Amino acid sequence: FPAHRGGVLFWAEQSLGSTEAVRNALSGFHQLFGHGVFRPSPALERLASLNLALSVPRNVPAADTGCDDDVCIVYARRTALARARRGAFRDTPVDDLLSGVLADLLRTTQIDPATVGDVTVGNVLRKGDTFATECRVAALLAGFPETVPVRVVNRLCSSGLQAIADVAAAVQTGQYAVGIAAGAESMSSSAFDWTKLPRNPRAKGTPAEDCYLTMLETSENVADRCHVTRQSQDAFAAESHRRAIAARDSGAFAREIVPLAARTRDRKSGAWSEPVVVDKDEGPRPGTVPAKLARLRPVLGPQCCTTAGNASQLTDGAAAVLVMKRSTARSLGLGVLGVLRSYAVVGLEPAVMGLGPLVAIPRAVERAGLTLDDIDVYEVNEAFASQALYCVDALGIPRDRVNMRGGAIALGHPLGCTGARMTATLLSLMQDKHARFGVVSMCIGTGMGAAAVFERTAYP
């Protein structure tokens, strides 16, 4: 039976008081309706005879939880995040970023690459058929045999998290036993202008027209509608940098970062530099304080409040996650970093797409059978300070539980990679803080939000 608190049997036991009462209730339904679906299973009969619980009580320690069918993450790492067009990865192809983390996954876990059922990679900016080819190239370069398939997924800013959810669902339903979810984005090589999207004339004057708003415009909409001041946004951004710098300087990111060698090309001479190992995030800036951020001009004009300093940075990077059931991990001798307990994607008004976490987090937490108070740590994507700040405060989440090692304002937001990157950061943080439950969430362009709940268990 599920060890988490989202299953029907858990709630039945909580309502009826005991395993025996559940067995007796089902037996009564079976006798009344004569339908086999109500017949108590042999496992339930055994539990009732021994007076054992169906599921784990709320207050048991993490070491006592876990079941063989849990869908687990046993590896979650990422590259360092480099500034787009100016950073160490500006001349590194996206397939090299991806192949770097995939190769590290194979080295670290020592799994047989031929046993992987699928590699699913999130990306936003690359053209679909181009990126599909680049992913296939990356997998082969990393050491996967030709028999291992690859596919891509694009749900905009949640693509990396959607890849994890897709692979987890495939593992849960038995499509394959071992799967890899990843995300990769080279914002240096993938220019995108939202204003140049072809527009459907039928959308004019309808809610669909707001799907064409730029992300900056939606940030201003949130700030205006939800009364988020420029001062509060700058303070939030400065805190993101402070936390990220503290984490980087203390070595807290070391466990999750895969060092990669990269070369850059001189723009004038065309000469290539010697390879340099990139193992630290480039985005966090020492000395970032609200007073300095206040001097930056709003991008859309003086009446606005979103600036380069209180919005996420353009960044290059890749991340990968290895997914399997607990029983498979045990047979392979791999430790479990976390269990995916729930995932939710929710739509909302496109004009305020930044409020996505506000609606997605409660949905995912409810699906896991939890409350917001049960969640120890949150990773909420800082697409903009306006939306991240408002979502956190509106949900009543203590800020000291959110983005404890900084967020996208400091670290960067490599769109298709972000969900997988945040998951790697969350699971590493949960291990360090001995946290049990954590949430990853982000807003999604065109008006959506996504969230996932993870549980850390010490059960092997």
Radius of gyration: 23 Å
Average of per-residue pLDDT values: 91
Taken in chain order, the helices and strands follow as HHHEEHEHEHEHHEEHEHEHEHHHEE
Count of DSSP helices? 14
| Helix share, percent | 25-40%
Total number of β-strand segments? 12
Give the overall shape, derived from the CA principal axes: globular
* Unreliable segments of 5+ consecutive residues: 1-7, 55-64
* Oligomerization state: single chain
Largest sheet: 10 strands, mixed
- What would you call the structural class? alpha+beta
Report the portion of residues in β strands. 15-25%
Task: Determine the N-to-C terminus distance.
Answer: 17 Å
Structural description of this entry:
This protein is an alpha+beta fold and 460 residues long. The chain has 14 helices and twelve strands. It is globular. Strand 3, helix 5 and strand 4 form a beta-alpha-beta unit. Helix 2 packs across helix 3. Strands 1, 2, 3, 4, 5, 8, 9, 10, 11 and 12 form a ten-stranded mixed β-sheet that branches. A two-stranded antiparallel ribbon has the order 6-7.
